[in-house]
Amino acid sequence: MADMSCPRCGENLGESKLHEVEMRICAGCMGLLVEQRRLLPLLDAMAEELLVEVDLDTEVEMIEDRGPVGACPNCGSAMDCDGYMGSKEVFIDRCNSCWRIWIDPMELGAMSLMYARAEKKLEYTEKKLAEAREKIQLSGVASPGYSGYSGRMPPAIERQRFEQAKARLYRDLDITKGQARVIRVLTQVLSHL
Fold this sequence. Notes:
This protein is an alpha+beta fold. The protein has two domains: 13-113, no CATH class; 119-191, no CATH class. It is 44% helix and 16% strand. It has four helices and six strands; from the N terminus they run E-E-E-H-E-E-E-H-H-H. It has helices at 36-53, 107-139, 155-172, 177-191, and strands spanning 13-18, 21-26, 32-35, 79-83, 91-95, 100-103. A six-stranded antiparallel β-sheet has the order 1-2-3-6-5-4, covered by helices on one side. A hairpin with a 4-residue loop joins strand 5 (91-95) and strand 6 (100-103). Helix 1 crosses helix 2 and helix 2 runs antiparallel to helix 3 (155-172).
């Protein structure tokens, strides 16, 4: 690998591994440069221990943003600064040219906690949605006089009730639209594994 300099302090970025994920780390400021595709396995490994302890209401303290990094240490392109998972607690710097992410110290721990909390919410949401679907199916029997009577309510009504129950659940859990999109994407990804 080519030599790279830390975008924060100028020190050389050394090669390292954390939970079998290769990355570059700065010995000066402890910042990390990781490929975007390797971030999810890293967070998954780190969050595994937290899943036992974290609950849905676990607070994540805001990590002070040190400002934009500027140029990507890998390719020199400008990096964008975004809130991790659409939040205002953790901001990460992302290169859209070579798909690297710069993570300042303390951000990785907060990201792991946020990831674990999202996993717990996903688990809880899936359980509650399954319960809601079952309740809707059990309580929504159409009358025998209905021409298409099959012992269930018409699919359009069943879907509408399910979507209403899901919306109530998201509102009760205080899940934002951005987090709901993340949950939908994670559900789709997990269903294909």
